[in-house]
């Protein structure tokens, strides 16, 4: 289960990083903190794989809702951005997948940490 999520995340990050050269050259003039804000915007919102499901109904229909959250307590850096992700499987009887994405500035790139919750009780639907 985690391997599949890791593969999907790797593919997504590869798509983001394999941008056209002109865009990549523009990104060099953008600070890490500005890039962090851009990445957070890309990960925030409502998503669905309906077009893929519509073409191949053996693929489970999935929706995701991702929102920026403020984490109280903990040892998060001042420039750390947190995203709460809720993924629902609409065509298979599975509980929602809930994750906490933590984006932080590195020296030359954006660091990403993905965490699951010990218990999802009370978190679904946030």
Keywords:
alpha+beta, single chain, 126 residues, 5-stranded antiparallel β-sheet, 29% strand, flat
Concise description?
By secondary structure, the chain is of the alpha+beta class. The protein contains four helices and five strands, in the order H-H-H-E-H-E-E-E-E.
Structure description:
This protein has 126 residues and is an alpha+beta fold. The chain has 4 helices and 5 strands. It has helices at 2-17, 21-27, 32-43, 50-55; strands at residues 45-48, 62-69, 81-89, 97-105, 110-116. It has a 5-stranded antiparallel β-sheet with strand order 1-2-3-4-5. A hairpin with a 4-residue loop joins β4 and β5 (110-116). The longest helix has 16 residues, at 2-17. It is flat. The chain starts with a helix and ends in a 10-residue tail after the last strand. The model has no long low-confidence stretch (mean pLDDT 80).
Proportion of residues in β-strands: 25-35%
What's the SSE pattern?
Answer: HHHEHEEEE
The count of DSSP E runs of length 2 or more, i.e. the number of strands, is: 5
* Count of helix runs: 4
Radius of gyration: 16 Å
Give the class from helix and strand content and strand pairing.
alpha+beta
**Strand order across the largest sheet:** 1-2-3-4-5
Q: Topology, pairings included?
A:
Blueprint: H1 2-17, H2 21-27, H3 32-43, E1 45-48, H4 50-55, E2 62-69, E3 81-89, E4 97-105, E5 110-116
Antiparallel strand pairs: 1-2, 2-3, 3-4, 4-5
């Amino acid at each position: 289960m985690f391997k599949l999520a890791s593969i999907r995340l790797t593919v997504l990050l590869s798509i983001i990083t394999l941008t056209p050269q002109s865009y990549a050259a523009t990104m060099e003039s953008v600070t890490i903190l500005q890039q962090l804000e851009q990445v957070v915007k890309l990960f925030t919102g409502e998503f669905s794989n309906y077009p893929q499901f519509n073409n191949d109904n053996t693929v489970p229909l999935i929706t995701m809702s991702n929102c920026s959250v403020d984490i109280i307590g903990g040892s998060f850096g001042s420039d750390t951005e947190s995203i709460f992700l809720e993924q629902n499987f609409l065509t298979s009887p599975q509980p929602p997948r809930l994750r906490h994405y933590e984006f932080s500035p590195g020296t030359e790139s954006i660091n990403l940490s993905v965490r699951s919750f010990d218990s999802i009780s009370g978190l679904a639907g946030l």
